Amino acid sequence: MRQGLCWLVFCVAGTVFADPPSLCGQQLAPSAGSLNTPVPKINEKPFAPTALQQAEQLCRMGKYNEAIGQYNAVIRSGSDTAAAYAGLARVYLKLKRPNDAHLAAQRAVELNASLGTAHSALGEVYFRQGKLPEAQTELLTALRLGQVDAQTYLALAHFYRATYDFRKSKLTIDRAHDLDPTDPEIGSAWVQTLSLSEQAKALEDDIASESKYYSRVEKARFKQQLALLRDEIEHPERTCIVASRPESTNIPLTPIGEDFIGLDVRVNDVPTRLVLGTVSSGIVISGRTAEQAGVQAITRTDMDALGEQNPPEAYIGFARSLRIENLEFRNCYVTVIERASSHSFYDQFEGLIPAGFFSTYLIDLDIPNAKLTLSPLPPRPATGDQSSASTEASDPGARNFHDRYTAPEMSKWTQMYNFGKAILIPAQVNGSPPGLFEVAASSKYNVLAPEFARERASLRHDLRSAHLEGINGRVSSESSGKVKLAFADLHFKAVKMISFEDTSPSDSAETEVAGYLGYDFLRNLRFIIDYRDGLIHFIFAPKLPGDPH
């Protein structure tokens, strides 16, 4: 699903590398260490660990089956049972078994409702299920109860990042790192809040480490990330800023076939036409355009997508100029597709430009009238929340991060959630509790996740199944049908959805993605997006069967 929407799993300038939540164990004794201290081994501890500590360390070392066995042994012993169930829930999350994790976390809370770690584990499960309000309640309950572990703060950091509260996320990941600097996942998330040079040093340490925590594939990806970081450090001018920035501007949108809309872009003065997506970052161009434009290659990169054909060849490159109408962006990183599988998205189109590329503006995307309007973002208040001043004083680095600000005129806008580069919003299908849906202008179809479709929609098996175009090829939908859809203040009586077996979007985002709304639906909407603070406002244009009521 997500890959069919062209969610790219590489990083470009200014993009924070993805960091999955840590899911293992209780707090270990803090110790001094570098930015990335090697994972401790059980036999390195100067004292005999308890059975619960052994299970936690097995999980930390990636020995999940052994950890499950150890946690079950603790449970059978009748000692530390609630804590063992909490740890078991975290292992199941790591193994992508959210239903088993939910049962284990619920059992932990039932056994000891005053145990902070039990509520923390349940909060992490809710986060994985896409139940963000419930996740927040459980994580904050864990804090109030006290005696929480470092992973509680890590989970809170991920929650705050998802809700665009980046200052709170910084403060909580710092607290997690203070409690346990030896945890590799905490260290990874913490390093990403530091300077580029510190991030580069951490990657160098990871690559050089003899620890078996990171696989060969992960270390290869670290080398790609390090090459880009070093280029950014060596060339601080490569910021992709607008030259002669206008206060506001209008840009015409161009239909691309019947299924997409796009923008005419000149890459180093070479013309190309790119599909307009709604992700937050990551311009992608074809190898042909890059060659004609003289794009400088920086490092190879990996891309995942739908289909089972050979993956495309891609690299991160540098373009001196990207011009869209009267806007010129200078010194930009782009991703170049050298070869894509036949009939895939990048085999048919010249590339992708995200609406988030214009995120320093308020973005008014009027698809029915084929117009993109950029205007100033609302100014932030001159001073922050005074109640947080004392906290920030002890952590000057947090001052470089900002929490979500909702201007008065945006008080009724819909809050977006930040998972990677996608726009996720809560939506209801057939009166269901809200699920997280991606607003995905670079996908043709509306798609329901398989489990969500089975629970909430009566879709029929379709022998004439539609095809989703991914980077690598096609996949066929298994079922289709019409549903009632509600989000923001809009209600639709009959929106066509398809579904097929693919859990990769939820697994990759570490939260449940219930589905996505594609161009076939979005072409009837005008939406205004504030990528800075994660806010979106929808306006319906009555061209869709089943008008909203």
Structure in words:
The structure is a single chain. With 549 residues, the chain is of the alpha+beta class. It has 3 domains: 41-191, Serine Threonine Protein Phosphatase 5, Tetratricopeptide repeat, CATH 1.25.40.10; 241-375, Cathepsin D, subunit A, domain 1, CATH 2.40.70; 411-540, Cathepsin D, subunit A, domain 1 (Beta Barrel). It contains 17 helices and 25 strands. The strands form 4 sheets. The chain has a 6-stranded mixed β-barrel with strand order 4-5-10-6-9-8. Strands 2-12-11-24-25-13 form a 6-stranded antiparallel sheet, with no helix packed on it. A 6-stranded mixed β-barrel has the order 15-16-23-17-22-21. It is globular. The two termini are 29 Å apart. Mean pLDDT is 84; it is low at 1-23, 25-45, 384-394 and 544-549.
Structural class: alpha+beta
What gap, in angstroms, lies between the N and C termini? Answer: 29 Å
- State the major sheet: 6 strands, mixed, barrel
Instruction: Just name the CATH architecture of the largest domain.
Output: Alpha Horseshoe
In the CATH hierarchy, what is the class of the largest domain? Answer: Mainly Alpha
CATH superfamily of the largest domain: Tetratricopeptide repeat domain
